[in-house]
Design a protein that fits this description.
- By secondary structure, this protein is an alpha/beta fold.
- It has two domains: 8-23 and 37-61 and 367-496, Lyase, Ornithine Decarboxylase, Chain A, domain 1 (Beta Barrel); 63-266 and 318-365, Alanine racemase (TIM Barrel, Alpha-Beta Barrel), CATH 3.20.20.
- 29% of the residues lie in helices and 19% in strands.
- It has helices at residues 8-17, 34-41, 43-53, 63-78, 95-102, 113-121, 137-145, 155-165, 204-213, 235-251, 273-287, 325-334, 345-351, 500-504; strands at 57-60, 83-88, 107-110, 129-131, 149-152, 174-181, 199-200, 218-224, 258-260, 303-306, 309-312, 355-358, 369-380, 386-390, 409-411, 424-427, 453-457, 478-484, 490-494.
- A hairpin with a 5-residue loop joins strand 18 (478-484) and strand 19 (490-494).
- Helix 4 packs parallel to helix 12 and helix 7 packs across helix 8 (155-165).
- The chain is globular.
- The two termini are 32 Å apart.
- Pyridoxal-5'-phosphate is lined by residues 88, 90-91, 109, 132, 226, 228-229, 262-265, 359-363.
- Pyridoxal-5'-phosphate (PLP) binds at residues 88, 90-91, 109, 132, 226, 228-229, 262-265, 359-363.
Length: 507
């Protein structure tokens, strides 16, 4: 772990007295669960695993998903809501995390045939699985055969399911949800966003007629929608429309019993709000030329200077939120709905005896994983930036698509490290230009050296294995699950060998 010397303080004073540009060293400490901090403090274990399984290495903390599931369940309990949390498995391939979740009263939301097969093998009974996403025939057939709740994306899927029903040996109907989008915002004005997913709301009348005609084949559970993290403005209107359509379906003799409001709840990546805000301010001043650059090739990370003025918007997520994911969720279902006399979705659902389904992915994976890499070497870039080259690449962190802005933790193999005078940029092992692990500079106290370990925190959601490839025959990371045993010692398992029930049985 980095120590706390501050070699920059004197440099900063010198720079200011000489009237040079501001060279302060902004930090963004990652929010870190105590289990992760403890693991990183056990140096022998960290280096033993890296030596044994190679770099990069993803370390999963399956027990942390249990804590978050409990928090989401409390939101249901406090509002006396019935329904189901479907853990969206798409952001991470770990089997350990699915097995851990399967020990709780939650379902699993899968989005491909392969994920469905994995869900069944992780211990989820078909009655607990929901199938979302665009579906090929293999996915539809297996879903229908296994009595999975199929969240229909389009009319072709609906028609195929009716055809399929006649080929199934049993009498049971195929259980479906229907995903909608293109909601009218009512008094709230927003720029409509196009989407490849869902059936447009204006086609809802045709859908309802179809459902009426095929009641013998399809058991209609209700409507659903999903918006991405941060997209809160569109949710109240979407909830209102789905509720109105559900009540209309009931009047017409259909039996919708649930509303599915999808996922999209956020994670707090940064530990401290002031630190995060001042990092963003420093980045902006660097773009305006008021300090040395903080981004690779002065890209500005979405900001730019035009006619002396700052323009643009960050191309990275907001890393600090006052609310955790379950609080985000609570605020969505507690929002007053103007079409329902200011009653909240929570109240309307519980009074109508309808169930609430949600599909959190990212939020349930908060603090569930880190990505470790060995340092290969350090050097200066052509323009004089301090580079730290890692034995991992951008696909191992999905860094082209998702920028992780928190400072990685460094585990030093030895104490003999020199003060790090400048900010460093982490680059990867691909023989390609711009294999950036992070596109911005961070400021460790000590300069890492070959063999040291660098740990990126909170990478389980969409980062560690979402876009990972063995490009240029570089490796994809192994996954290791780490848990505390009954005696308080850390135990590790290869991801596929982790079994929380066997552990509880004392194995
Ligand atoms: C249909 C659906 N549900 C749930 C999710 C999970 O979203 P998040 O990880 O933002 O909670 C996604 C993610 O893309 C999705 O497409």
């Amino acid at each position: 772990m980095s120590n706390s010397s501050t070699p920059s303080d004197t440099c900063l004073a010198d720079d200011l007295s000489l009237g040079r540009k501001n060279r302060s060293r902004p930090r963004v400490k990652a929010a870190m669960h105590r289990s992760i901090a403890r693991f990183l403090s056990e140096k022998e274990l960290v280096f033993g695993l890296l030596d044994g399984f190679g770099s990069p290495l993803n370390v999963i903390f399956p027990e942390n998903i249990s804590e978050t599931i409990e928090r989401f369940k409390t939101v249901y309990k406090q509002r006396q809501l019935q329904g189901r949390i479907f853990y969206t498995s798409k952001p991470n391939k770990s089997l350990a995390l699915k097995k851990q979740a399967s020990c709780y009263d939650v379902g699993l939301d899968v989005s491909s045939h392969g994920e469905l097969v994995k869900a069944l093998s992780a211990g989820f009974h078909p009655s607990r699985i929901e199938a979302t996403g665009p579906k090929n025939l293999d996915y539809l057939v297996l879903g229908a055969q296994q009595d999975i709740l199929i969240n229909v994306d389009n009319m072709t899927e609906l028609q195929k399911l009716v055809e399929l029903k006649s080929m199934l040996p049993s009498d049971r109907k195929i259980r479906i949800l229907v995903r909608l989008d293109g909601f009218d915002g009512g008094p709230v004005k927003f720029t409509p966003q196009d989407s490849a997913f869902a059936i447009p709301c204006k086609e809802a009348p045709a859908v309802i007629e179809f459902l009426e005609r095929h009641q013998e084949s399809l058991d209609f559970y209700g409507f659903s929608f999903h918006f991405n993290a941060g997209d809160y403005i569109r949710r109240p209107g979407a909830i209102e429309t789905c509720l109105e359509l559900s009540f209309e379906c009931m009047n017409r003799g259909l039996k919708p019993r649930a509303l599915d409001i999808g996922g999209g709840y956020r994670i707090r990546y940064a530990d401290d709000q002031d630190e995060w805000n001042s990092f963003v301010e420093e980045l902006k001043s660097s773009v305006l030329g008021d300090r040395d650059s903080l981004s690779w090739n002065e890209s500005g990370l979405g900001f730019r200077k035009e006619d002396g003025v700052l323009k643009g918007a960050p191309n990275f997520m907001e890393h600090y939120h006052a609310n955790d994911g379950h609080e985000d969720f609570a605020s969505v279902i507690d929002t007053p709905l103007h079409k329902f006399d200011g009653y909240s979705a929570a109240r309307i659902l519980s009074e109508s005896l309808m169930e609430l389904y949600i599909e959190p992915g990212r939020a349930l994976l908060d603090q569930c994983g880190i990505t470790l890499s060995r340092v290969n070497f350090t050097k200066s870039s052509i323009l004089g930036e301090q580079l730290v080259s890692l034995d991992m690449n951008r696909t191992n962190l999905n860094s082209t698509q998702l920028k992780l802005m928190t400072d990685p933790e460094i585990v030093f193999r030895s104490d003999e490290r020199q003060a790090c005078e400048k900010g460093v940029m982490y680059v990867g092992n691909l023989c390609l230009t711009h294999d950036m692990i992070q596109y911005h500079k961070t400021f460790p106290d000590l300069l890492p050296q070959p063999g040291d370990a660098v740990a990126f925190i909170n990478t389980a959601a969409y980062q560690m294995d979402f876009a990972e490839t063995n490009v240029l025959e570089q490796r994809v990371a192994e996954k290791i699950a780490v848990v505390e045993d009954l005696n308080g010692r850390l135990r590790w398992f290869q991801d596929i060998n982790y079994n929380p029930i066997a552990l509880k049985l004392g194995n």
